[in-house]
Amino acid sequence: MKWKLITHTLIFVLFTASCANNNRDKKLVYNPIKKVKDNNYTLDVFDYKSLKPLLEANNDTVYVFNFWATWCKPCIEELPVFEEFNANNSSKVKIFLISLDFSKNITTKLIPFIKNNNIKLKVILLSDPDSNYWINEINSDWSGAIPATIFVKNGDRIFVEGKINKEELQNNINKLK
Amino acid sequence: MKNNVFLLGIVLLIFSLSACNTGEKTYKIGDEVEDFSLKNIDETYVSMADYKYAKGFVIIFTCNHCPYSVAYEDRIIDLADYARENEYELIAINPNDPSFYPEDSFENMKIRAKEKSFNFPYLIDEKQEIYPKFGATKTPHVFIVKKKNNKLYLVYKGAIDDNHEFPEQVKEKYVKTVLDELAAGKEDLTYTETKAIGCSIKDKRTEEK
After folding, report:
1. Mean pLDDT for the stretch of residues B92-114
2. Min Cα–Cα distance to chain A from B13, Å
3. Chain A hits for B71, Cβ within 8 Å
4. Distances from the Cα of A81 to the Cαs of A61, A85, A113, B201, in angstroms?
5. How many Å separate Cα B22 from the centre of its chain?
6. For residue range B128-170, what is the model confidence (pLDDT) as tens digits?
7. Which of A84, A87, A91, B181 has the most CB atoms in a 10 Å sphere around its CB?
8. A48-59 residue pLDDT tens
């Protein structure tokens, strides 16, 4: 009787332990360094160190990270491409709009832009002055001009500099799926 | 048979030579740099050859509208003085097609230069032929050119420093370090290429979709 209890407990513990390990691998590491709240909107701020694990997500989902800013006209022109895609596709594609706006403009420009344009996609801010370092970490071919987009799935990465259209968005996602 | 092979050789040679000529050559570090003749805000044309006694040039592709350029304006003014102390001339060039942003028009360039008392030439790359030679991809984008035996060579390209938003928090002053090292006669520069975020250059030929 006692043995049955012990073995059952052991099995239970091992099972939950292994489940916990699996979950840890699949959990998205999302740890902003700061949250800015304004007008009922919370904007998460990252530096490159905290952004890196997010960019290295490894859980069978295709991630699309678009680098943009409110002052970048071509960036704004391509936003509807991402929004439309998101509205028509659920499942295993997650889009993040990574703003490179100046941190002093979060409440004066970024959050108002998000609200006025009814942006539904997740917007986060990358605030890290050492761009000479992280531009190359994101992609060594990146000149630093925006817009730029990276597609990530389980360690595979596709980088595109410049404005992209609906077809390119879909094609790059398909390449990784 | 021999004739055919010979003929093929000639064809290949001609082909490869013509391919060289049509190539879009962008200056690499160490490459010789061609001079230019571009219109300044005072309506005169400026070339690097105009500065007979300059030891080199700090060429900055920049514009009125880009917030990154604006964030650096004061530092660029400061750099012009710093460069001159080291016998280098700073030359600013607007590479953009003003039809994208009216703020980048020639008239607005004159206004900005007057407002901020620019102490350097502010030229317009009207035909947009100069910035592709340098491989400028954004504003601001710096190219430092050194004079040697009356020729010009590219020695640095990239950013001004490592903090666009907070000048008081700058740790690495890339351009100033290059200028100091050049003045000291250093051949092996600490910085030859750095990167920074900036606004893409506005050009109808590359504006897709």
Report:
1. 97
2. 32
3. 102
4. 19, 6, 17, 22
5. 22
6. 999 999 999 999 999 999 999 999 999 999 999 999 999 999 9
7. B181
8. 999 999 999 888
- The residues in B 23-62 lying below 8 A from A, measured between CB atoms, are none
Q: Which residues of A touch B159 (CB under 8 A)?
A: 131-132
- Within B98-202, strands assigned E span 122-124, 138-139, 141-148, 151-158, 198-200
- Residue type, position B101, single letter: Y
Q: Burial level of B29, CB count in 10 A (0-12/13-18/19+)?
A: middle
CA B168 to chain centre: 25
Is the Cβ of B145 closer than 8 Å to some Cβ of chain A? no
State how beta strands B141-148 and B138-139 pair. unpaired
Report the amino acid identity of residue B111: I
Smallest CA–CA distance, residue B133 to chain A, in Å, is 15
Name residue B104's amino acid: D
How close A175 gets to chain B, by Cα (Å)? 21
The span from the first CA to the last CA of chain B, in angstroms, equals: 51
C-alpha–C-alpha distance, residues A100 and B89, integer Å = 32
Average pLDDT over every residue of B34-54: 97
> Which residues make Cβ contacts (< 8 Å) with residue B162, sequence separation at least 6?
A129, A130, A131, A132, B170, B171, B172, B174, B194, B196
- Cα diameter, chain B: 74
- Give the A window 84-113 contacts with B, CB below 8 Å: 100, 102-104
- Judged by CB atoms closer than 8 Å, whether chains meet at B164 and A72 is answered as no
CB–CB of A62/A156 below 8 Å? no
Give Cα separations from B42 to A77, A151, B129, B209 (angstroms). Answer: 35, 47, 21, 36
Assembly ipTM: 0.81
Residue B34: closest CA among B162, B184, B154, B114: B154
Residue B10's pLDDT is: 66
| Tens digits of residue pLDDT in B51-76 | 999 999 999 999 999 999 999 999 99
Report pTM: 0.85
Nearest CA in chain A to B194: A132
